[in-house]
Design brief:
Helix content of chain B: 25-40%
Strand order of the largest sheet of chain A: 4-3-2-5-6
Mean pLDDT of chain B: 96
Number of domains of chain B: 1
Mean pLDDT of chain A: 97
CATH topology of chain B: Aconitase, domain 4
Radius of gyration of chain B: 15 Å
CATH class of chain B: Alpha Beta
Low-confidence stretches of chain A: none
CATH superfamily of chain B: Aconitase, domain 4
Number of strands of chain B: 7
Shape of chain B: globular
Oligomer: heterodimer
Distance between the termini of chain B: 26 Å
Strand order of the largest sheet of chain B: 4-3-2-1-5-6-7
Largest interface: A-B, 47 and 42 residues
Distance between the termini of chain A: 55 Å
Bound molecules: iron/sulfur cluster
Number of strands of chain A: 18
CATH architecture of chain B: Alpha-Beta Barrel
Structural class of chain B: alpha/beta
Amino acid sequence: MPMTMIEKILARASGRDEVRAGDTVVAEVDMNVLIDLQFARWVTPLAIADPERTAIVLDHAVPAPTVRDADGGPRARAFARDFGISRFFDVGRHGICHQVIAENALARPGQVLTCTDSHTCAAGAYNAAARGMGPAEVLAILCTGRTWYTVGPTIRYDLVGDLPVGVGGKDVFLHIAGTWGDATNHNLEFGGDGLASVPMNERRTVATQAAEVSADFATFPVDDACRRFLTEHGAAPEDYVAADPDPDATYAAVRTVDLSALEPHVARPGAVSDNAVPISQIETRRLDQCFIGSCANGQLDDLRIAAEILEGRTVADGVRLIVTPASQRVYRDALHLGYLGVLADAGAVVTNSTCGACFGYHMGVLGEGEVCLTASTRNFRGRMGSPDAEIYMASTATVAASAVAGHPVDPRHLLAGQEQIA
Amino acid sequence: MSADWRITGRTWVVGDSVDTDAMYPGYAMKMDVPEAARHVFYALRPGWVDQVEPGDVLVAGRNFGIGSSRPVAALLRHLGVAALVAEEFNSLFLRNAINNGLPALTVPGVRDLVGEGEDLTVDLAEGWAEAGGRRVDVAPQPPMVLDILAAGGLLHRLVADGYLPAEAAR
Ligand code: SF4
């Protein structure tokens, strides 16, 4: 029987010839990633399945903002040492888990990856069956090396046309969320001729955001760009077997996205599903905070785009622009390439790498009545601080340009070199 | 056997797409479970944590629990919630409930079946929900899920299987 991308991966991992939507399978997990929050309540296992299929990443709360978080660090260090876990990303070589997964090719095509974070679907950009699990389940996978999946129906997105300048993965995703709404318990599969115009960083933004329409998995095929990315990060083509969908696979829906027709999008506060519109339709709001960061949009390319827009410009009076690189490596690369200097000169606050403001934990929490435009992943009420703050969501380019204007603006005006912004 | 999977309780009814952050706000992740549990629905239904009683059933609409991997179920169990019943669950939230030993069942149309404050009975193994003399049949939870619930959640299971020390189940 023909299978979708995700069905193929789960069939292989569960030792079956085929799986179809509705099946529940037990699959071997190729890589299981623990984050710092896992160690806030920690019981050391008596035995673990495989240290080589385990990684630990300190990301959400580093350097520790509370004693409680600080107490997790030594537990993580002792556990990594005692169990011989070499893939341990301690403060200083840390980053947001999904960025670290990408930088170290921990997620490989055709493989299964789990992690204690809901945006683990990010690694679907590299053709992996990756999804978030709760801390108890990640602990169970650490011990047993496997877990169960109920295979959801797959929605296919065929991308056509070329992604225009100034339009990013976030805009592709917000268009999808705004047009078709939630995809609860479904998998998203991307492909089509237009994919070649979507760089790897933008694919990862799309895959990351899939959690926001309540999808289980979001997967992309392996093409030249993906192979190149993986090779550069330590996974040669002979290290993996890509999962291509069969031509006659069964989909719950097949939808076409014309990339060439897309304009920058903005999601209104609360949710992205049925709540995102082209920027030409968004109301003017005075912004208190602009945030560029998170696993979705704190990548090196995001910092480059922000620096290009902010070069020689200044963040508007009354606006805080907070920029949080997605990893220490991104931070160092952006430092050496001069992006951080440009951002700081423009009036941005550049923080260390962490999840930080994205989940309202530290370094950029919103106060009552404040309005934020964020390039991060989630705009739930209260997500970034006060429940009486409002969180709009857009691409890095839109957030950077809007920080200059003081209200949401189309970044293509600034990218085109037009000094005057409305 | 099946009677073990039959749960009756007074209901609290919330809407569609109630997200994890509404139940377990980011700032509460700095707290231990008993204190964090004081903040469930802090903005959506202030004061709810003082009204909910052990044995109550939480009923929700579509896309229940979209969001984070944070274990909301641990807080709901601390408050004594006996079961979650929703028209549709986010899969991560559902897994978290099961793995934390909190029974959960998908019942399409449940909000037409029961109003807030009324009693609802569900049977996870047989797959049905009943209120006010009306009953709807739904997909039962598979045996694998019932096994995890029967153990009291994944940590208890891991202790029983010799992977974790006994203290993990406390
Ligand atoms: S950056 Fe935000 S969405 Fe991404 S892993 Fe961290 S808290 Fe989650």
